[in-house]
Amino acid sequence: MTGTPVSRREGRAKVTGTAAYAAEHAPSGRLHAWPVPAAIASGRVRAVHTEDALALPGTVAVLTAGNAPRLGTTDDPALVVLQNDRVPHYGWPVALAVAETLAGARAAAHAVRVEYERGSHESVLKAGDPTIYAPETANGGHPAYRERGDFATAHAAAPVRIDVSYTVSPLHNHPMEPHASTAEWTGGHLTVHDSSQGATAVREALATLFAVPERDITVVSQHVGGGFGSKGTPRPHVVLAVMAALHTGRPVTLALPRRQMPAMVGHRAPTLQRVRLGAGDDGVITALAHEVITHTSRIKEFVEQAAVPGRVMYRSPHSLTTHRVAALDVPSPSWMRAPGEAPGMYALESAMDELAVATGLDPVELRLRNEPDTEPDSGLPFSSRHLTECLREGARRFGWNDRDPRPGVRRDGALLAGTGVAAATYPVLVSPSRATAHAAPDGTFLVRINATDIGTGARTVLAQIAADVLHVPLARVAVDIGSSDLPSASLAGGSSGTASWGWAVHQACTSLAARLGEHGGAVPADGLDATADTSGQAGEPVPYARHAFGAHFAEVEADTVTGEVRVRRMLGVYAAGHILNSRTARAQFIGGMVMGIGMALTEGSTVDPASGAFVESDLASYHVPVCADIRDIEAHWIEERDEHLNPMGSKGIGEIGIVGTAAAVGNAFYHATGVRMRSLPITADKVLEAMDGAGL
Fold it and tell me: Among the options 304, 393, 640, 655, which is catalytic?
């Protein structure tokens, strides 16, 4: 059953509108809430004037630091809202309007007047900022600094040297469904419908913040309209909704306005990256350095681990990878699809293309020559690594070998065309989870686990895993997910969901199959049950380096008159273990590539130095790719057999699709024009300026 192209079980409910999202749950007496964001980047609230708001018809309450429920301690300062007068960044919630209707809540929020005491602020990342410091670790617990050998000496001695810098602007997750919660207190029990990638983590946070036992809290995340990392941890909206419900004694729905999301739900921090490569005339790398500067907020350290992929990808006997960070008056950055790998591999794979030009080697051949025997940083053997096969198969499918290596030679009137390639990698992540499996006398089965389907088809794939183990038709297996009342599970993030949940489901169904065997296949009247807990197995250290790999190929056209850049065709070939559902997998790979095209060409954000606000705060100014931007796009894979992963032999696939895409597009732009763009996104204004400078 696994491996087959099974349609999503919830597909009909979504397209017919019967799948209820967090803001669509409407308990009797429900109120609506609308946050009031801070209009300064640093300072404190001197006074909040609520009289005009409370006088509006339908306004029920306005919560401020003076009357909001008190919160307990937490290790996430971004959740400690409406507790004091401090303003740590623009957009920080300073009040919350609650009204009978959504329109009423919005009107009341706009009627609130706030007086501030402004403090000085610095919100723009600059390479020369004297406050930049070296953290101990980057995101994911990776050491911020790693050095092997003697990079400086090896680089200086190399016959071919590359020393280039790349810039990636702040990026925003912008899922289709905004962050939303509906909270209701009933007889001391709190029920929250939350747009979250992990209901268990939300319950744990709310229990601590509101001093309520976890058994008295139910968090439901049945359907989630995307997250891309921004819903991976509890966000302020759920805390505010629960506060409002507690304060008013009525159910409250809070759906974050789109323009408030960039300041409240995390973002991909900007990165200033320097890559230095030293190689022989044969292209074999002898020295590799990747140095990253990024920003974090003043209340919570988050360091984008963009240099970490450089520790994985290529042979490099002498290596230096570092992360430095500036604490600024900005919202706290957080996870965004393929954190670290997406911006880091853009810089590394762009530098590899520059090395290919400097050595006169084909870019595919250069990568093949630098395949490591073991993971360079740890020295561990790879559990499986089929990047070579991805590059060769991709080159065959793309027609790469027919490519004229000279840049700027394919012209059709005002259009220049070119092709580019980049490699991709993403780590195999897995966490402990619990699951139960039940066999009913009528021959049906029920699997229960608090997994979250954020649009990936988790319900379907978990049912496929269960049906495989139980040797029954898929139609006889039901799956119950998306509630903290179910057996606890890890969040849907880090491309780890299926690997983590599937392990627990596989184990529970294996135990259930054994029990069925003991009963001769007969099921008692009350059914048979089995449980699984992969603690002590999933997530434990293993003597292997486990990663997924891929190769991206792109063809672009650049208009020398308008500066517009379009991707004519895009191909991704991946090595990601055993593919459990070819239909949903292809959708995930393609979705990642579309997001990577956005990263390369359209998505970019800036911080206004005067206000400290993100300028591109909605979908009118922050441009994500639409159907008209995507022409010919294909995803294929190499079927891997890797016994060192999980019982299904699967790797994560949700994020690797984005990792190499931006570099492939950028490299194709260089091949088309002969002009190297080292700052994303590659927008028309930058293109025209660069072409003018090159005389095109």
Answer: 655
